[in-house]
Structures are given as structure tokens and as C-alpha cells.
Amino acid sequence: MNKPSPIEQSEPAQATGTVPPPLAMLAELTHRCPLSCPYCSNPLALSGKEGELDTNEWIDVFRQAADIGVLQLHISGGEPASRRDLVELVEGAVQAGLYTNLVTSGIGLTPRRMDELEQVGLEHIQLSLQGTNAELADRIGGYKGGFDRKMQVAAEIAKRGIPLTLNAVMHRHNMDDLERTIEMALELGARRLEVACVQFHGWALKNRAALMPTRQQTDKVKQQVAEAQARLRGVLAFDFVPPDYYADFPKACMGGWGSTGLNITPDGTVLPCHVAQSIPHLEFDNIRQTPLRDIWYDSTAFNAYRGTDWMPEPCTSCERKEIDFGGCRCQALLLAGDANAVDPVCSLSPDHGRITDILAAEMAGEAPDFTYRKL
Ligand code: SF4
Ligand code: FES
Asked: Which residue, 38, 231, 279, 287, is the most exposed by fewest CB within 10 angstroms?
């Protein structure tokens, strides 16, 4: 599953000396998924069904989240429709007072199930799009018939008037189809199009050389998004996550660590971002043992990179430090070998040469075949 970007896109909280409440929570109901996308950002080791929080445990988490101020709930996976109790869980979240967004490939959403989801008050659906035609989409998702099924689900969403965001995960193999992707978003009645270029975490890292776009593709897509934003203002909103290896500055990952959002894994582990478990020196609490409020405000993991006090130079003296919060901690670990380092995506980072080396090495030859993930 490619995670929704609203948390990444939201304005970072200012470092005020007090910890603000979280605005958004991503609930990864399950790691089970019928698709096997090469860009999946979930970790290499997935949780099995037996370890998943049960219905009552999830509903309790939703109540705790609402109590501490969470407004938006992104219900994700894996494929959340793989959970038989999906309708019950959405109902529990709605009753807790959360705005509910279902992040789905559409596989497993029958018309009857959608009726039930609508009846219990599901407020928004974010439907992933692997490609603009069946051949490409089914090859990328590793699931034959997935595109046709998705189009049927999109029609059912439109019929019911449920607000729709189309989440187009873009990379070397589909970036040149952006114009058609925009047309499809309009045809399907989406209100928002997320142009989410692949972030290389989790399983996606295995496919970095296969998925990395060219600089030419990247420049073109930025121009196309800017042009479409202006042309379709008031008709279709855009969220754009550009390919960060070609950026001059990093993004404020999660809007700043522990500032606006949190993630819960299928087994109840509470994380500041969905890749945080890759950072070996941090310990993460589980909702089965510790109340969410205590984890958000007091846990060592959430406090490790909050605000700006932890930063090294040149971040400490940089005017962007409360804009990007030093970038992504997981990427700093991955590329610089140190989660406390400046994100090497930053052109001011002493490790920025790693990015140029990777691009030179991975763009030198033909893109290799995909390595698909299987559960
Ligand atoms: Fe951001 Fe640090 Fe780079 Fe400044 S030096 S732009 S704060 S990552
Ligand atoms: Fe960016 Fe973890 S994925 S901080």
C-alpha cells in the first residue's frame, strides 16, 4: 500500500515548546493484500493475521484517538477490505467522532459492502491507481483483472456520491501517462488527485532501480502538475509528492516527527511514521499495553526527533529548519547510516553525494524487472 499523503502535505506544527495534539492517524488494519505492488512502502517483514488487533481493540484505539484530538482517520493496510469486520470498524470510528477516509485498491469492495459502508457513515474513499489501462495497471499491481474491478468500484463510488480521491502512484513506468491520469480522475468524478511519486522505503527500496524516474520525466511531471492545478482550479484539487531524489531540499516528513500524525500497525504498535521501526535504537510502545495519550506525549520514540533541538548542523543554523524539520529520519538512516543526520536529499547535507551516486548508478542502464511482494 502506498500511504496517503495528507499528513506529509499538512503544514508542520511550529516548535512552540508544547506538544500539539495529533490531527491525523493512519490505522493499518492488516498487512494482507491481494496486490503485490513493487512500490509497497510497508516493511519487509509483515504482520500475520493472527497478530492483528481485533474489532474491539481497534474501536478502543479510535476512541482514544478522538479523545486526544485526532480529527482524521485514514483506514489503510495492506488492503483494509481484507478485514471481514471493516464495516464494523468504520462504524466504530464514525461513532468516535472521527472523519473516516478508506485507503483502498478497491479489491474486496462489493456493491453490498459499499452500501453498508455508506450506511454507517464512511466519509471519503482514496482509491489507488496503478496505471491508466488494464495491461499496465495489472502488471504493476501484479493482479490480473485488478484494473477492471477498480473501474467498477469507482463507478459504484460515484453512484453513491462518496467523495473520492484518486491516488496515482507515479514512477518511471507510468509518469508519462499523467495527462491521461488527470482525464481519468475527471471521468471518475474524483474531487482530488494525488500525484504521489514513489518514496523508496520498505519493499519499494528493492525496486528502486526499476522504479526511479528520469530527471526529464521529473521535470515534465512538475510542469504538468503546475499547469493542471491552474487549469482545473475549483474542479480538481491536486496533492503532489515529487520524487525527492531530484529535489534540492527534503520534504517535512509527517509534517515534522511527532507533530501532526501517528501510525498504528496491524499488531497495535504506535509509530511516528510508517517506516520508523527501521530505526534500531528506538523502542516503540504498543496500544495493548500503553494508552495512546501517554505514547503521543511521553514516549521516548515520539520525543526523539520532535521539534528542532535534536538537529545537527547545518540544520541548526538553517532558515528552513521549521519548514522541513531536517527531512526524513528513516531516509537519513537508510542513506547516511544515521537517523540523527541531515536527510541526504538536502543539497546542504554532507551526505548529498550519496544521492547523486545512486542516481548515476541506477539510471545508467535499462530498468530491471520488478520484484513483487507476496504475503
Ligand atoms: Fe532542511 Fe536541514 Fe537542509 Fe536546512 S540544512 S534545508 S533544515 S534539511
Ligand atoms: Fe520519514 Fe520515517 S518515513 S521519518
From this structure: 231
pLDDT score for 364 = 87
Mutation to probe ligand 1, out of 321, 351, 355 (largest number of atoms < 8 A from CB): 321
- For the chain, the domains span 24-254
- pTM for the full predicted model: 0.92
CA distance linking residue 263 with residue 270, whole number of Å = 6
- For residue 63 the three cell numbers come to 476512541
Give dist(CA 107, CA 149) in Å, integer. Answer: 7
Asked if 95 and 66 touch (Cβ cutoff 8 Å), the reply is: no
Instruction: Compute the CA torsion angle 356, 359, 364, 368 (nearest 10 deg).
Output: 160
Q: Would you say 255 and 13 are in contact if contact means Cβ atoms under 8 Å apart?
A: yes
CB 285 within 8 A of CB 271: no
Residue 87 Cα to ligand 2 midpoint, Å, equals 30
| Residue among 203, 279, 282, 328 whose CB has most ligand 2 atoms within 8 A, to mutate | 328
343 grid coordinates: 536527510
Q: Which segments in the chain show pLDDT lower than 50?
A: 5-16
CATH topology assigned to domain 24-254: TIM Barrel (3.20.20)
